[in-house]
Model the fold of this input.
Amino acid sequence: MAKVVVVGGGWAGCGAAAAAAKLGMETVLLEKIDHLLGAGFMAGLTSTNAKYTAINEVKAMGAPEIFEADEAAILYRNPRVPSTENGYLYDIFKCERNVFNLLERMGVRVLLETRVVDVVVRGNRLEAVKTSQGEMIAGDSFVDATGSAGPEAACHKYGWGCVMCVFKCPAYGGRVSITEKAGVKEGMARRRDGGYGAVSNAIAFIRESIDRDFLARYATEDGCVLIPAPKEIGDPDLFRKIRTQQFYDSDDFNDRIVSVDNGTIKFMSRPWVNLPVLRRMEGFESVALYDPAAGGRGNAVRFLATAPWEPTLQVTERPNLFCCGEKLGMVGTTDATITGILAGHNAARATLGLPLLRMPRTTLIGESLAYVREKLQNPEGWYDKYSFLGTGGLGKRLKECGLYTTDLAVVKSRIAENNLSGVLGRLEQK
Ligand SMILES: Cc1cc2nc3c(=O)[nH]c(=O)nc-3n(C[C@H](O)[C@H](O)[C@H](O)COP(=O)(O)OP(=O)(O)OC[C@H]3O[C@@H](n4cnc5c(N)ncnc54)[C@H](O)[C@@H]3O)c2cc1C
Done:
């Protein structure tokens, strides 16, 4: 059987592995830590705004499975998170298990605690990856889904040191980029404070450390509680300059804390908080941090490793290496999953010598990817992060093109008109 090797078990890698396995490939997924979903293990808010359209384009293209695993862990539909619609909040813990079980059912060999440290390249093609245990894993096509966070040294250089976040670098080792190991130069995002990368903009607390009466509000307020924020809890002007999502650049997120229930209690748009100030606030008197453990001091630095890529999601000049998720410059769980699915699908096609799928600009996904590629050609474009969510310039573009819709019949017929119905579930020539 032809073999696809996916490195990185975040949402992007899980999407890629599911897509390749669906086409009958022998698929192996290598993840350095002890669970799947990567940054997405701390996420929970998904399918918001135009992401909803993008998800439904993929479903119409024949790859609903991973979204169904996610939807089976829904805690709240349409949470009242400002500036969002159509979204839901998933239980991060349950969702991880759902995705793990799905991949196993689909026949993916999932190897946790397996960190890739090197690659074998012949000419412009990858032949194998090497793990920290010294094992060589050969493949026909490869997917770099290693994300853009850390490693630990990068958090020291560009951030606030190791804050003991979900990536667990001190215990499992830091991120190693497959693209870079394959000899392709990556880019780093810029920050408006003059630094590089972008700082994770959410922190999570242990539910049980929050007052019970306060906690009950999440159930009655659709999963999202808005809390007035004293200025001393953290400087919104600094946060605006350093964080990963421009989506939060509004008074909705700066003047108050937008907190959600994703299995933990998560503060969105706050890279860190002043804990003594928080502990003076009603409901949070005994609050304890869950992730990052040092979220009273700082947060992880991401977007330090973006690959150059083609419309097929091939890494430029490496025909059997594909990239997805934060590795290609997009932020968000839906974004990682969808680009992962497309990368995994094309990795399977490349393995079999079939023509690769390029999403046409007449789809929301295709137009968004084209927009991101255009932006990354320009130095100013490296200050922004991009998402199917559809904010900022991309949101404007999607509206101008009339691509953002919640009408599922319109989405289905758009996919049919582009001859893409069911395409992710089959391998015939196009
Ligand atoms: C705290 C936090 C909260 C967030 N909340 C939300 C939210 O509510 N909604 C939303 O849409 N987005 C949210 N995001 C953003 C979203 O989670 C990410 O953009 C998305 O999940 C990135 O997925 P990815 O697969 O591209 O990368 P990652 O999640 O970074 O996954 C990369 C994976 O690769 C592994 N890896 C790296 N190097 C190697 C190697 N050499 N060998 C093996 N494995 C390796 C890493 O351990 C990691 O698991 C949040 C992010 C954070 C940090």
About this structure: The domain at 3-190+302-425 is CATH 3.50.50.60 (FAD/NAD(P)-binding domain). The radius of gyration is 20 Å. The mean pLDDT is 95. The first strand starts at residue 3 and ends at 7.
